[in-house]
Amino acid sequence: MTAEDFDFLLGRVKHLITKQDTKMRLAIPPGECMSLTLRFLATGESFKSLRFQYRVETSTISQIVVKTCAALYQVLKEDFLKVL
Hints:
Layout (H helix, E strand, L loop, with lengths): L2 H15 L12 H14 L3 H8 L3 H23 L4
Helix pairs in contact: 1-2, 1-4, 2-4, 3-4
């Protein structure tokens, strides 16, 4: 995937996957969430393997992947998925 394609996708879903920082923790940036999700979808790596690469807990990874995939579907379905 080119950097332009990544930026296009991120621009479309950024507002849906951005979280706010709190006093307890810093939010994971949307670019990292997108990168993590695309790596999971492209390679099929386990969440445990991704956990060591991104230094994010497995339960958080599962939430990120689900939320980012839902956001991608929501913004891209009209342009790329046709209902028969």
